[in-house]
Amino acid sequence: MGFKCGIVGLPNVGKSTLFNALTQTAAAQAANYPFCTIEPNVGDVAVPDPRLVTLSEIAGSKEIIPTRLTFVDIAGLVRGASKGEGLGNQFLANIRECDAIAHVVRCFEDGDVTHVEGRIDPLSDIATIETELMLADLESLERRIVAMEKKAKGGDKEAKDLLALAQRSLAELREGRPARAAGVSREEHDLFQSLGLLSSKPVLYVCNVEEASADAGNAFSSVVKGQAEKEGAVAVVVSAKIESEIAVLPQAEQTDYLEAVGLAEPGLNRVIRAGYDLLHLVTFFTVGPKEARAWTIEKGTKAPQAAGVIHTDFEKGFIRSETIAYDDYVACRGEAGAREAGKFRLEGKDYVVADGDVLHFRFAN
Fold first, then answer.
1. pLDDT tens digits, residue range 240-260?
2. In what order do the strands lie in the sheet with 100-106?
3. In this predicted model, what pLDDT tens digit does every residue of 172-196 receive, in sequence order?
4. pTM for the complete prediction?
5. For the chain, percent helix, then strand, then coil, each to nearest 5?
6. Buried b / exposed e across 243-270, counting CB within 10 Å, b at 16+?
7. What single-letter DSSP state applies at residue 313?
8. Do the Cβ atoms of 6 and 74 come closer than 8 Å?
9. Could you give the maximum distance between any two Cα atoms of the chain, in Å?
């Protein structure tokens, strides 16, 4: 699995520019007026992982297949979106379908790019978006809670558990805190997500700064990072303008361009890593002469479920996984060397797959 991340923010903060850069396409119109995006744009991007190249070179793989993730460019929300202002209701529904929110925050000053509220204030912008998501959730839960209470009285355990989560979320929302503040356990996660609450989504703040601040950020982005730390969220600094310029360059020229502007890597890489950390994702590999391929799973996933990501039959008939840690695979120059060095392991159904594992699954038909 990858993940689906909705790009949100106020109008004119650089969402569509960032989306275009991330997907290396001009599918989303970037214009200096609110609501230039009238339909959510969806783009799949390959997850850059240099480990794949190394593995393919060692194994002589003919093809490299990276894992992919999806970004959804959602039109600019405004104050009152939860009540249908702007194009609010339509796009709040689009957010519900995403696993996480990439909240693009304007952290640059530019007289040629108007701000919908006439000033540059990242914390106020964050509060505006968060408030609209919480108001939408509050209205949704208050509308559904009576029916949930009736169902729970029928004795259905799942209905009771769902009601308890809804009540905990309502308590947070009524105190002006997002639903994710309800403190949901890993065991409760799937049921909690079934409530479809916008403010339950983990948040990645993307600080869009001017070109000169693309590496270290600026005073505005420092304020956003401080806010992210308070919330237990994640913040990264990018310059959407630089990213859009990098995206149209041939691969061979991108490194030179990055060096010229003082960056070690594209902002896309930082956004992806931050997204992975946010959603607790890890990568495992399958490697052979035909292909070297990356697969994404949640941290803590056991071997049979990891096998199921490749094909459901692999999980159903799982016998064992032949496992080599990435560092061992590289140090031993492949599977044969890892076997000789005693780094080749047979793992059973309780094995928790680690990031970078090179796996081959054995299963019964």
1. 999 988 888 887 898 899 999
2. 41-46, 68-73, 4-8, 100-106, 203-208, 234-238
3. 999 999 999 998 888 898 899 899 8
4. 0.83
5. 45, 20, 35
6. bbebbeeeeeebeeebeeeebeebbbeb
7. H
8. yes
9. 67
